[in-house]
Structure formats: structure tokens, C-alpha cells
Design goal:
Elements lengths: L6 H22 L8 H14 L3 E2 L11 E5 L2 E3 L13 E10 L2 E10 L5 H20 L6 H14 L3 E2 L5 E3 L6 E5 L16 E4 L2 E3 L5 E3 L6 E3 L5 E3 L2 E6 L2 E4 L4 H7 L5
Antiparallel strand pairs: 1-4, 2-4, 3-12, 4-5, 6-10, 7-8, 7-9, 9-14, 10-13, 11-12, 14-15
Helix pairs in contact: 1-2, 1-5, 3-4
The structure holds 2-amino-4-trifluoromethylsulfanyl-butyric acid and cobalt (II) ion (CO).
């Protein structure tokens, strides 16, 4: 069941998403060689709590972090840990903040120091494919149009699309209907209407699309251990078009010319 949001609800979504994006501005300063992912997670949690939000992933189904930590071959849902980031790593930080009963969900894959040109290209393509998906999110289109736009863009450039994990509707709950896959056929799936709020989140691999879940029951990594990238925005459909509710501007301000 898809819950379309009223303009008042969308304003609450916007506020939650704004806090999500501002949190990224804080943690972006800490992404550097030698910093542990646990440290970054703590900084995110404290910033959210100081600003009246709730870290929605923490305790969700038993998840142990504020952030999902996605180092190199980790696709999604990695735990914060004592692992210290290393020059050349990429690290996806995936964050959901609840504010005043509504959720904002976003993910950005950061470079740690200098990264290889091949990995940079994977990140750039994944980030760009997110905007291809957002462009396709408009009234009259269907969810499959978003999925197809992302898939086509990435596969043409030689990358593969993770099948098992999807974007999703979002609102009072972090995960609502519909599922928003990153692969599929145009003209299929639910019709896009004004008031639809979804998180679009391409998860794109350099090698094969296959994944495995680690023994912790959460951490999802590529089977071939080649890198995977992940970018995500929460959007709302208003006057026929998708408006981004989350923004990477706070990250861009910190990273400057290192922004991917
Ligand atoms: N953006 C992630 C998702 O949609 C957030 C997961 S939070 C967790 O799956 F608690 F499930 F890890
Ligand atoms: Co999400």
C-alpha cells in the first residue's frame, strides 16, 4: 500500500531530510585515513541527537549503528567498527534520520584520500545514475522507468546492478511501499503520482552483480570482492516532478574539489 503524502507531510519530510543532509556535512569532515568507522558513527549520532532527531537505523531490527558503513566491497548494511579507514578506500555512509515522526534517507560514497581512477569512475557513474533515476521520476511514468534509467546508464558503462537490494517508499516508516529496484523494464511497476515519497539508491558493482551476506546476518558484500558504490536521495513528487529532499551540498562544501 503506497501512502501518498500531503503538502504538510512533505514539509515534515523535508525537515527530516535537511537534518540528514546536515549530518553528512558534519561527518564529511572526518572521513580520512586513520579514522575508525566507529568514530564517524558516534559523531553522526551525537549531531542528530543534539538537533532533536533520532538515528533511525540504530536498533532497527537489531542494527548496531547510526550509519551503515560500506567499505570497498561492502554493498550495504555494514557495521561501524574499529576498522581505520585507509588511503585509497571508498566508504559509503548510509544514514536515516527521523525527525518529528518522518524519515530522511541518504547515502554518499566518499573517497578516502586518493583513490584509483577506476574506482573514481565507478563512483561517478553511480552518482550520475542516481540523477538519471530522479529525472525519470515524474507523474505518468512508472517505477520501472526509474529502474530502467539507472540500469541502462550503468550497464552501458560496463558496471553491474545489484538485484537483491532496492530503493523504497519512505515516510513515517523508513521502508514503505513501493520497492524501487535499480533494474527493470520501462512502463512496468506502480504509477508515479504527486505526493509519492521514495528513496532512490543505486548500488552498482565494478565486477559481477552477485552479492553475499556475511555471517553477522547484515553485511552485504560483492561475491568477487570487487568494489561497489552507493548513492541515495529521498525525493518527493510535487507538481509532476521529483524534488530532492536530501542534498549533497553540505558534503560538497567540505570536500571541495574532492567531491565526486
Ligand atoms: N538506507 C538503508 C536502507 O534503505 C538504511 C538501512 S538502516 C538499517 O536499507 F538499519 F536497516 F540498516
Ligand atoms: Co534507503
Amino acid at each position: 500500500m503506497i501512502y501518498l503524502k500531503t503538502p504538510e507531510e512533505i514539509e515534515k519530510m523535508r525537515a527530516a531530510c535537511r537534518l540528514t543532509s546536515l549530518t553528512f556535512g558534519e561527518i564529511a569532515k572526518w572521513v580520512a585515513p586513520g579514522v575508525t568507522t566507529q568514530r564517524i558513527d558516534t559523531i553522526a549520532r551525537e549531531f542528530i541527537l543534539d538537533n532533536g532527531g533520532r538515528p533511525a537505523c540504530l536498533g532497527y531490527g537489531g542494527f548496531p549503528g547510526t550509519l551503515c558503513i560500506e567499505v570497498n566491497e561492502t554493498v550495504v548494511h555494514g557495521f561501524p567498527s574499529g576498522y581505520a579507514l585507509r588511503e585509497g578506500d571508498i566508504v559509503g555512509l548510509d544514514l536515516v534520520v527521523e525527525l518529528d515522526g518522518y524519515n530522511g534517507d541518504s547515502c554518499y560514497t566518499f573517497p578516502v584520500g586518493e583513490i584509483s581512477p577506476e574506482v573514481m569512475e565507478l563512483c561517478k557513474t553511480t552518482h550520475e545514475s542516481l540523477y538519471k533515476g530522479i529525472d525519470a521520476c515524474r507523474t505518468g511514468h512508472r517505477i520501472g522507468d526509474i529502474a530502467n534509467a539507472i540500469q541502462t546508464y550503468c550497464e552501458r558503462r560496463g558496471y553491474t546492478v545489484v538485484r537483491e537490494m532496492c530503493g523504497h517508499g519512505i515516510g513515517r516508516k523508513m521502508h514503505e511501499d513501493p520497492e524501487v529496484p535499480n533494474y527493470g523494464r520501462r512502463g512496468t511497476g506502480a504509477l508515479i503520482k504527486n505526493g509519492l515519497c521514495i528513496a532512490i539508491e543505486p548500488m552498482i558493482n565494478m565486477g559481477s552483480r552477485n552479492i553475499v551476506i556475511e555471517r553477522d546476518g547484515w553485511t552485504c558484500r560483492t561475491r568477487d570482492r570487487k568494489p561497489s558504490a552507493h548513492y541515495e536521495h529521498t525525493v518527493a513528487v510535487i507538481d509532476g516532478e521529483a524534488q530532492q529532499l536530501t542534498s549533497f551540498d553540505p558534503i560538497r562544501e567540505v570536500l571541495g574539489d574532492r567531491f565526486i
